[in-house]
């Protein structure tokens, strides 16, 4: 489950950074 959460967090951070 840790791996799934890590990927979700990474994707969220990446999207937030892209949107600015």
TrEMBL record:
Write out the ranges of the annotated region (Disordered). Answer: 1-20
* Protein's name according to its UniProt entry: Uncharacterized protein
Write down the species. Answer: uncultured Acetobacteraceae bacterium
């Amino acid at each position: 489950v840790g791996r799934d959460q890590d990927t979700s967090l990474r994707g969220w951070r990446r999207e937030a950074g892209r949107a600015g």
